[in-house]
Amino acid sequence: MSQHLFIKSLPVVAMAMGNKMGVEVVMQGSQARTDGNTIYLPALPEGDKSLWILARGYIDHEAGHIRHTDFSHVGSTPIHRALTNILEDIRIELEMGGSYPGCAVNLRNLANHLAQEGAFTPEANRPEQLLPAWILTACRSRVLKQEALEPIARKARQELEGLLGPCLVGKIEKVLTGVKALQSTGQAATMAEEILQLLRQEQDAADKQQKNQAQEQKSEADGQSDQGQEGQCPPPSKLDGDSKQDASSGSPSFQDHDALSGSDRDGGEKANTASDPNPSRCRKALRKILDEDPGAFGDIGTHCAAKLSATSQNSEEHALTGIYPGETPAHELLSGPPPDLHQVRAETVGLRSRLTRLVQASRLKRSGAGRWGRLVDHRVLHRLPTSDPRIFRRKEERSAIHTAVLILLDRSGSMDGPRIGLAKKAVLALADALGTIPGVSVATAAFPGTDNRVVPLTRFGQSVARSKTGYGIGASGGTPLVPALGWARARMAVRRESRKIVLVATDGQPRNPATVKAMIRKLEAEGIEMMGLGILDNGVTGRYFRKNQTLKKLSELPETVFGMLRDALTEK
């Protein structure tokens, strides 16, 4: 797949997420974020494969949070929030990968990409980042099989053991063996608290030991300093047996990390003494881990959002094929009853009959005479004396119609008054008439909805009679035609019809005219036929659409649209 196709396919991915997972994805604007219900992506420029990796992984990651995370567990301290988020990220990504194997691939690619960019490498002299870095990379490489993170995990563990000692790191490691069994956000928060409790116990023991040593030095009493405090790791020279037990109880992957990091648990007193942490450094590191804020370190969602927002294009014209505005249900915008379908049919009866006759005529199999065949055409036997060999009957095969039509209704504030009433009736009549023609699939939608979204009215495969209630929407807002066309593009991308038509019923006053023209040309280049139906617009719609007509009253609809649709409903 060429690089520009990656971003071009994102709106289709966004649409599929909503259809299959029930997670709404919106692509427009310049910021990547989520509000716990909807995932927002900025409009992204084409040609950068790394943006595809970031965007695809971000969508799957945040979809996992929306589907599986209990957002009431916010954490009691900055480090607790950071560790809970790291463990919860692993839990929900494991869930998503189990339900949707493609997500596991996307998330693995994302983690590898972020690792190469240094997103999981802690800053120097920041132990409050070093601990999350080790937990994140070690657990991800073991549980999620993200092998690119293993070298970071080995290095982080080695540095952490130098600060806190192998005994404390081993205790934390033992807790982390249960990561794969986490079933809820609450359990992730509990595991994070268990890890912090180990750190607090070690901090208390170190503080007590420091106080005792100060008293001992003052009283010059010998021998008491060798008595360990409850909860404190024994001196390094006595760790051999316990270290072996901790290592054997952990996962094989973590044992491999120990071997590769150079920690020799069975090497005797000399090896352990070499890794004995400096008491002062250990106390300082524990204090920073427990008290300092690691910031957004380890927060994959925040990191991806920042990268996507930084590389997005504020101007839509540079990212026309990376737009998908999402949808607003029609019932949220109803302002009155819909047009009377029976009355609309009565006023546009000529449209239905003319389109039907056109299609029937185009599908007739006409017979003629040919030079070869199985049946003799008795009507032309008189040609034999003239040596004309065209005496066999042949039937001309006609291609069946295979067309998808999507009609967009402009419901902006400038359409208020007689325009919106005429436009709704026209769109209703068109959808009703086209829906009766074999081989033609039709859908309708209005724009704008909430936050530039699109309002589906009649979906493909749905009858107008069953969806007519949605046509009771009123007119309000601006005219964001570019997002509406982005929505139409994504919808048409999954249609299998050989011909695809987008017809826009509007007054010809869109926002960002230059961008609208660029978007229309882009869709035409992708094989979508673009048509404009001007509603009392004095021909303004013709500035944007090569194929266009102006509608002044409903009774003119058959004559107005017949010319535009005639070629589309016959053989191309």
From TrEMBL:
Classification via InterPro entries: CobT, NorD/CobT, VWF_A, vWFA_dom_sf
UniProt-annotated stretches for the region Disordered: 203-281, 312-339
SMART domains per UniProt: VWA (SM00327)
Pfam families, per the entry: CobT, VWA
Domain VWFA residue range list: 404-572
Regions that span the bilayer: none
GO biological process: cobalamin biosynthetic process
Ranges of Basic and acidic residues composition bias in the record: 255-269
Domain of life, per lineage: Bacteria
PANTHER family given in the database record: NORD PROTEIN
Protein name: VWFA domain-containing protein
Annotated organism of origin: Syntrophotalea acetylenica
